[in-house]
Design brief:
The chain is an all-alpha fold and about 110 residues long. The protein is built from four helices and no strands. Helix 1 runs antiparallel to helix 2 and helix 3 packs antiparallel against helix 4. The N and C termini lie far apart (about 55 Å).
């Protein structure tokens, strides 16, 4: 059992590493295409929006994983009251995070 778990963990780490390399190479390739086809100005705009999306994905702060973990048992037991309470709670958290990002972004601008 432990050997299979170690093997699966190694495969998971390897695939994550491979995913990072492929993403890096595709990003480099897309920048080359943008520069040659559209010019340097569009590359700047593309980079700006890519950075904003990266910031927003970092703003998740692992809440998505916590949400999935906390909803697993209520969904399995079909406990609608607890599901509604958790969804309402996570809605508040995401609202606070989005307002914080908007305020910080406005201040930095």
């Amino acid at each position: 059992m432990e050997e299979a778990r170690t093997t699966k963990s190694f495969k998971n780490i390897s695939m994550g590493f491979l995913n990072q390399i492929v993403t890096l190479l595709l990003s480099f390739l897309s920048r080359i295409v943008f520069i040659r086809a559209l010019g340097i100005h569009f590359l700047g705009i593309n980079s700006l929006f890519a950075d904003v999306l990266t910031l927003l994905s970092l703003a998740d702060l692992g809440i998505n994983t916590a949400m999935i973990y906390s909803l697993y048992q209520p969904l399995a037991e079909n406990d609608r009251g607890k599901i509604n309470a958790l969804v309402h709670y996570y809605r508040k958290i995401y609202l606070r995070i989005s307002v914080s990002i908007a305020v910080i972004g406005s201040c930095l601008t």
